[in-house]
Specification:
Strand order of the largest sheet: 1-5-12-11-6-7-10-8-9
Helix content: 40-55%
Structural class: alpha/beta
Order of helices and strands: EHEHEEHEHHEEHHEHEHEHEEH
Strand content: 15-25%
Number of strands: 12
Largest sheet: 9 strands, mixed
Radius of gyration: 20 Å
Distance between the termini: 18 Å
Length: 324
Amino acid sequence: MKPILGITMGDAAGIGPEIVLKSFRNHPGSAGVMKFYDQQLGTKMPMHLVASAQEADYHGGTLDVLDLGLVDVSKLKIAVVDAELGRAAVIYTQEAGRMAMEGAIDAIVSAPLNKEAMRAAGYPFEGATQILGELTQSKRFGMILIFGQLRVMMLTTHVALRQACDAVTRENVLSMIELAHESLKTFGIPQPRIAVAGLNPHSGEGGLFGTEEQNGSIPAINDAKAKGINAVGPVPADVVFLKARDGQYDLVLAMYHDQANMASKLLGFGEVVTLLAGLPIIRTSVGHGTAFDIAGKGIANELNLVCAITSAADFATLKKAGKP
């Protein structure tokens, strides 16, 4: 039996609804919004309004829409930060999370959220990682970027760079190495090779250019090795991703958001899939944002969402087979 995926449309003012329409057919969100974009884009997508996942038909060419009644389409403004849309996007994500926990769907695929809109609605979340982490009461979770055979996990995500530097502690780095190790084993890699990226130029050059490596990363790597984990580093960030791309490592633990994303988007822009690690449910997403600059113009490329959908289906199939 094929896995059942729940696709959340993200922020209604961004490109999420458009790429969902162009990609697939199962979508928790807003029927009104989907019809609005269907008319705007001229996609003429048949839609089936449902009250639960159990009512979905899953017929090819038809969009099963679970409408939560959160968006007033008459007031919808494309490419505008709106607190109500931020609130709706959070609730869509939470509802999809509950459906996954209950077994109504096998995996979640997320179109992009808008963090400014969520904050305007009063939510402190950095993104779906924190929303679903709180919902599932997970104590340790993180984000893995996947493109081809290259995988990158972030020590920190959406925080100021100063905070990211302060987060390079022995405890934090070790925790994420362990999470990466556990996650890679679910990918079918029995002895994962994990490279920890340096934070500072030349990984600090023995303390000449910063002490975060000496005080945080190096002790954490030694602790991981003592636990039987194949961790190396810190490897200077200007070479670690190329080495991983060439097969030397199974995953790179990057120290901060842009360190991971600059590498991933340069090497795999448009195909980067994000996977949440450490949660009891499967959730993938795209590697891009809400793209307000092109929202509503009908030119958004859905390839990244298709990659996220395919990855979610693959992970769900493995889970159903009991391999993870």
